[in-house]
Amino acid sequence: MQLILSGVERRDKCLKRFAEACKGTLTHEWDGKSIPVVVGNLHGADNIQIACRKHGIPYILIDHAYFNRDFNLYVARFCVNNYHCTDWRESGKKTPKVKEWKTGKHVLILPPADKIAYIYGAENWVNETIKEVKRYTDRPIIIKKKNEGKLSEYLPMAHVVVSFGSVADVESAIAGVPVITSRYSPASPISNKIEDIEDLKHFERDKWLSALAGCEWRASEMPECWQRIKSLL
């Protein structure tokens, strides 16, 4: 296993903490064969993910946590073979309170960030999704790109959030707005289908949130983190 250093202190400190638990090798260059561990999508981490997905090589991706957001990554999420959680085992960890499911007026579409679109080949996702949504509803469509205003300002009037996959999907479902997502989303277990956009299901969220909580770990929990995720590789 190779942990790929980026030269960014907060990212590399996180890798070094995890390296002590998994006994991997810290390096600046991936050898193209070992299981790589990367932080985020910058500094070549995007191309490493693309190569792994193309050749069927397992990888671990570290990024900001879902519930305990920490810029310095003393709390971070650890995901296997995807930018988001793919481990749906319950964790027993504390989860946030949820609001009751609600209804609204418009369809809120959240495009993938540029790097995510590049890694997953989703450059045409927005146009294709708009066409598909219009097949099943005549509700107004609002598109919110990343960093364009606060998500909380869009949710009160939203009937549904349609997203390729981001932390915003989790925040939307916690706020009581149903979601329609791709299989890469952290909210995929509670996702509706586009054809059901006018007859949305209201899923139970406790087990799903417990699983999401199970993929985020504090700096002091690296041995436990490694024990949980290594079986997924």
Provide a descriptive summary of the structure in words.
With 233 residues, this protein is of the alpha/beta class. The protein contains eight helices and ten strands. Helix 6 links the parallel strand 8 and strand 9. Helix 1 (9-22) packs across helix 8 (222-229) and helix 2 (45-55) packs parallel to helix 3. The longest helix is centred in the N-terminal third of the chain and has 14 residues, at 9-22. The relative contact order is 0.16. The model has no long low-confidence stretch (mean pLDDT 97).
SSE diagram, text form:
Elements: E1 2-4, H1 9-22, E2 25-27, E3 36-39, H2 45-55, E4 60-64, E5 75-80, E6 106-110, H3 114-120, H4 125-136, E7 141-143, H5 151-154, E8 158-163, H6 167-174, E9 179-181, H7 206-213, E10 216-218, H8 222-229
Parallel strand pairs: 1-2, 1-3, 3-4, 6-7, 6-8, 8-9
Antiparallel strand pairs: 4-5, 5-10
Helix pairs in contact: 1-8, 2-3
Oligomer: single chain
CATH class of the largest domain: Alpha Beta
Overall mean pLDDT: 97
Counting DSSP H or I runs of 4 or more residues, the number of helices is: 8
Calculate the terminal CA-CA distance, rounded to whole Å: 11 Å
CATH architecture of the largest domain: 3-Layer(aba) Sandwich
* Structural shape: globular
How many strand segments?
10
Strand order in the sheet with the most strands = 2-1-3-4-5-10
Q: Pairing-aware structural class of the strands and helices?
A: alpha/beta
Low-pLDDT regions = none
Strand content: 15-25%
**Global Rg:** 18 Å
Helix coverage percent:
25-40%
Question: How many structural domains does the protein architecture include?
Answer: 2
Major beta sheet summary: 6 strands, mixed
